[in-house]
Amino acid sequence: MSIKQKFKLLAQEKRAGLIIYVTAGYPDINFTEDFVQRLQEVGVDFIEIGVPFSDPVADGPVIQACSQKALENKVNLESIFNLCDRLKSKLSIPYLLMSYYNPVYQYGLEKFARDCAETNVSGAIIPDLPFEESAQFRAQLKKFSIDQILFISSTTSSERRKKILKVATGFIYYIAVYGVTGTRDFLPEETYQDVARLRDQATIPVAVGFGISNRQQILRLKTCADGIIIGSFVMKEIMAGHYTYLLDTLKEFHRILKNPDEKF
Question: Which member of 68, 99, 128, 222 has the lowest number of beta carbons within 10 Å of its beta carbon?
């Protein structure tokens, strides 16, 4: 299923989608394969599969630690594409790859795009590839109908937003907080306001990530965003071995998103 198709279904249900990030290969690749299926079972709408990298500049200490362990397990793009190939018959929801640019560049842009298509990867998120330098990569993805997910934040100028929105496909990844990934108890009030304004400007869905970890944030974001991205909270609970608690919490988040009567 494509990202566009899934968001169309979510629009028919009149709810935001739940997008969950997991670091591939933490604690090992077999766990990742099993756990993403369990995520689907509790109602997760999209999965971001993180490619481990030695210098994850956008990530906080939790995802850095998970990435390091995955690298020690010899997890790389080749083994992740093998994982995605196995997931083709097991997942009915879209799954994306989130990677820093260096592993993708070393792998080969066209080869990366082709392997995404062959393993049913719906999109690619590259946090350290500036929009202004992404045309070549985006063109390779487009040949194989793969979306490159582009970033916008509160500090993105109006002019730059217009340029990004003109070419963006899949969804916009809105960065909710300054700095690196990691859980936050609260999001700034202006975040919700800016997301609502961006949503009015955009012709594709807007999903919000960075810092999301609790029920109150979900209740607020469901009114202004098309998707809610959770990563560090997920990996923190996986690191602690709190698998049942994590799945129960995500199931509750899904229930909140489905229930129009549950409000902030």
Answer: 128
